[in-house]
Amino acid sequence: MFAALWACSSNTEEDKVAQAEVTSADEVAPDSGEPDVQEESDTAEQPTDYIYDEEEQDSPSLPMADVEESITQALQAIFEIDPALFHNAYDRAIRPAYMAAVEGLDEDCPYYVDYYLEDYNQYYWSDNCTDERGTSFTGYGISYNTDEAESPDGYYVYNRYFYGDAAIGDSDGYLIEGSGYFAYSEYSTPGYARWLYIDAYGKYRSDHPDQADTWLAQDLDIEIKMTATRYEGYPGNTMSLTASIGGLTGVVSSVRMEDVYLYNESLGSMCPGEPSGRVSVRDDEGNWYEVDFHGPKYWGAATFLPQCDGCGEVSWRGEPLGTVCPDFSPLLDWETRPW
To answer: What is the C-alpha to C-alpha distance for residues 113 and 278, in angstroms, rounded to an integer?
Structure first.
């Protein structure tokens, strides 16, 4: 629903390899007549790094109740990652310099690429400087914000984009940082449906008091691909989600969601309480627990009803451990936005 522009630069240098001269002995010692005896290496009797005792390997230690709770907590964490919070904070930080560029003022900080602004309505800056307002810029960033843009079938409520490795500090000393790619839009056809899209990866953080209780105050690594739809006439929701989050605190430190899909009974789902896909959680010891669910993989897909119980099968390194039944209501329990 929106166009994303990638910009990158690469500077390659031809590696210089110094070639050492190889010398060999011209004379060979005469045969003494004695049989050769090869001395054993001091490390010959030591086991290699690849030999291990299977009985000493670790075993799964996370109780099934904790696996279930961690998935519920992970879902809550994902829906705390409101993309508008980052884009609003970044837009406020860059806005004065952006407006100066639009108005053609002779601003030296930050340096921006003229044709991006003229041809694409995108602000592309790259610098390490502090402007006359006391705002510091480090790194580079490409962004646009075309909210409330109309189209033949509806309009974009939000349509925002960021790509770069940027740190912007305001005159009060507060910092907004973004490193990665973050595309986000919400599109509405009034009376029919509203679509929401996220395609993001990287790290995003702000120490401003306004974001103290939000996901921007946490040190998270995120990768999210989400498509969500709200059909107004039924009403009913669909949710498609592939995501990973690192840096969580609590029972688990990281979570992965692969091809998770769920939709409401009002839209015809025979299994509205259980998604399809896999959810994996990682404990503090580095163990991954994989949970497979059996809901429909797409709208109208067949479902094996005996497996439609809201529960998933847990495994650790391929070994079945049991079942868990987490709460997936956050995937569909929203009316306008999931956040």
So the answer is: 43
Looking at per-residue confidence, does 33 or 304 come out higher?
A: 304
Peptide bond into 190 cis (omega under 30): no
DSSP 165-233: EEEEE-TTS-EEEEEEEEEEEEEEETTTEEEEEEEEEEEEEE--GGGTTSGGGS--EEEEEEEEEEETT
The one-letter amino acid code at 209 reads P
Instruction: Retrieve residue 262's tokens.
Output: 């769920």
Is cis: bond before 275, omega within 30 of 0?
no
In whole angstroms, give the CA distance from residue 205 to residue 273: 34
Whole-number Å distance between alpha carbons of 220 and 31: 68
**Whether residue 1 has pLDDT greater than 60:** no
Query: Of the candidates 139, 142, 178, which has an alpha carbon nearest to the alpha carbon of residue 4?
Result: 142
Note the pLDDT tens digit of each residue in 208-244.
999 999 999 998 999 999 999 999 988 999 999 999 9
b/e map 118-136, b = 16+ CB within 10 Å: eeeebbbbbbeeebeeebb
Share of the chain above pLDDT 70, in %: 81
Beta bridge partners of 69: none
Phi and psi (nearest 5°) for 288? -100, 135
Listed in order, strand segments (DSSP E) in the chain are 123-130, 136-145, 149-151, 154-169, 175-189, 193-206, 221-231, 236-246, 254-263, 276-282, 288-294, 312-316, 319-324
R_g of the chain computed on alpha carbons:
28
pLDDT tens-place string over residues 125-144: 999 999 888 899 999 999 98
Instruction: Tokens 């009913």: give the residue.
Output: 236
